[in-house]
Amino acid sequence: FWRRVSPPVPAGCAMRVDAAMNFEFRVGGLALRGTPGGALSVVAAGGSTLSADEALLLAARAHHIKRWESQRSSYPEGRKGYLRWRTDLHKFHAQEAGAILEECGYDAATVARVQQIISKHGLGRDPDVQALEDALCLVFLDTQLAALIADLPEETMVNVLRKTWKKMSEAAREHALAVEMRPSDREFVLRALSDG
Q1: 23-27 and 30-34 as β-strands: parallel, antiparallel, unpaired?
Q2: Neighbour-count burial of 33, counting CB atoms closer than 10 A to its CB (0-12 exposed, 13-18 middle, 19+ buried)
Q3: 152: which of 98, 117, 129, 156 fits an S-S bond (Cβ 3.0–4.6 Å)?
Q4: What's the predicted TM-score (pTM) here?
Q5: What b/e string do you get for 151-163 counting C-beta neighbours within 10 Å, with b at 16 or more?
Q6: What is the Cα–Cα distance from 166 to 18, expressed in whole angstroms?
Q7: Residue-wise over 58-77: b if at least 16 C-beta within 10 A, else e?
């Protein structure tokens, strides 16, 4: 389900992207990681031997670039405020990544493709967008699920799980059910998904 790939990214550009957003996410002992050395792991959608292209690798590196510059608290409370924040974040991340890539000499087509993936245009139809979304959903389930189950009201958490599940490919869903988690969390997940 995972495949390690090394992107052919110019070292100076990769380091600039990493400096703006260095990241490491773990799922079941595997990592989605961007490093100054250029190593990156990505989910292979459908369990295939995905040959991730450069645009997907760059998008994975930069999908949350400078996220700290846009605080959730600067938007109104509630669902509308949250959705507006997320929409604006996608645009911001795409613009920031695009600016760096243009400065590094990437052609307009590559810059536009990276921005499309970061903006999640084509989710469910575009294999690269889906691969990135699958990785992000798996990271969420592995690293944040237990804390959210403990902190959020049950109805809210059920909704979060169902929405996350809808965004995932079938292969990612299968992998998610195999991720190690506390028995009580697994029971909650199965109950939430079976009730929907």
Answers
A1: antiparallel
A2: middle
A3: 156
A4: 0.71
A5: eeeeeebbebbee
A6: 30
A7: bbbbbbbbeeeeeeeeebee
